[in-house]
Design brief:
The complex is a heterodimer of chains A (173) and B (179).
Chain A lengths: L7 H5 L5 H13 L1 H29 L13 H20 L18 H9 L22 E7 L14 E7 L3
Antiparallel strand pairs in A: 1-2
Chain B lengths: L11 H29 L3 H20 L7 H14 L7 H4 L15 H19 L3 H12 L3 H8 L3 H18 L3
Helix pairs in contact in B: 1-2, 1-3, 1-6, 2-3, 3-7, 6-8, 7-8
Classes of the chains: A mainly alpha (173), B mainly alpha (179).
């Protein structure tokens, strides 16, 4: 590397004392490597200036590079994830609840009418009406109860007061 | 109140002179200051506010009889320090690669040339990200047209340090962007 390589940029920027600047200028005319470096530094300086101006222009013409968009939903997702993890951890750490073995009575037999209705709602598997067992019940005939006071049949004091005899009477043809 | 009165002497001639100076400086340095602040990452509104505050400070400084030496670097230093207060957006511009929307100087003759320039521009933008904060600031102030001595005054570092930093930054950019 050339001894003057550390002074080339300062020389380009006119920041060297006059005597030193003359020396560097003379050297650059002689040294191809330094000429190439000077050319590269000039190009970089111009490009940086262009970048600088472009940055300014983009800022003041409204085409400024956008600020990296903050992921507004990122924290919501993270919070949901954390909440879900906490709930899962709680659910897993909880002991299983000992349930009381309740012996439920067997369910009462469904009424025939309901069964009949259920069956009738399924036309494809409709059971013929004749085969359905109908409940067997006999009609109860009307009954009349007549109360006879006990005083009417026994002498006074033989039965406690207020006693009466009840007779059930059925009428049949 | 007593009958004694305090005589107020207003240095009107000096006030007018400082006003003129401040106005002249405003016309001369407003744009370079705005450019520098924009490149530091301030939004246009923030940059305008900072520039106005800087010139207000300059006016107070001159009115109070402050030193008129190196006013240019003094203004840049005030603006730089105020920009530092906007740290949230400080690295936004040169910290991030410039997007495709960033305008290039429109001096390309052919599409091929424009493409090459754009690629070079993007390489340089990526290379700028590798610079340290001090290197970036030195290069920005250099691009503004400040001398090494003035850059040193703005950043509060020695002139020789500025020379070294600029040298290092330019060489780094040349190496990284394959120029």
């Amino acid at each position: 590397m050339c001894n003057f390589s550390g002074k080339l940029i300062a020389w380009l920027d006119h920041e060297l004392p006059e005597v030193e600047a003359v020396n560097v200028e003379w050297h650059v005319q002689q040294c191809a490597e330094c000429r190439q470096s000077v050319s590269a530094y000039q190009e970089i300086s111009v490009a940086f200036l262009g970048c600088y101006m472009g940055c300014y222009m983009s800022c003041y013409t409204g085409t400024m590079p956008a600020r990296p968009a903050r992921n507004r939903w990122g924290w919501v997702t993270a919070a949901c994830g954390i909440a879900a993890a906490i709930l899962l951890a709680i659910a897993l750490s909880r002991r299983p609840v000992e349930r009381l073995a309740v012996q439920l009575p067997p369910p009462p037999p469904a009424p025939m009418m309901a069964y009949e209705r259920q069956v009738s709602e399924k036309p494809a598997r409709r059971v013929p009406r004749r085969s359905i067992p109908r409940p067997q019940w006999t009609p109860v005939e009307p009954m009349v109860e007549i109360a006879f006071p006990a005083d009417a049949f026994f002498p006074p004091g033989a039965v406690p007061a207020g006693f009466s005899f009840i007779a059930s009477i059925r009428f049949q043809e | 109140m007593s009958g004694d009165s305090v005589r107020l002497t207003l240095p009107l001639s000096r006030f007018a002179a400082t006003n003129r100076e401040a106005t002249t400086l405003f016309g001369e340095l407003r744009k370079p200051l705005l450019r520098y602040l924009a490149c530091l990452g301030l939004s246009p509104d923030e940059a305008q506010d900072v520039v106005q505050d800087a010139f207000l400070s300059l006016h107070r400084h001159l009115t109070a009889g402050g030193s008129q030496k190196n006013i240019r670097s003094w203004l840049f230093r005030v603006a730089h320090n105020q920009a530092r207060n906007h740290q949230t957006s400080y690295h936004r511009r040169f910290g991030d690669p410039l997007g495709p929307s960033t305008e290039l100087p429109p001096d390309e003759a052919t599409p091929e040339r424009a493409l090459l320039e754009k690629e070079k521009f993007q390489r340089l933008s990526v290379a700028i990200r590798t610079l340290t904060e001090s290197e970036r600031e030195c290069l920005l102030l250099r691009a503004t047209g400040l001398r090494y001595r003035e850059i040193g005054e703005v950043l509060g570092i020695a002139t020789s340090t500025v020379a070294d930093t600029v040298d290092r930054a330019i060489k780094k950019l040349a190496e990284k962007s394959n120029v």
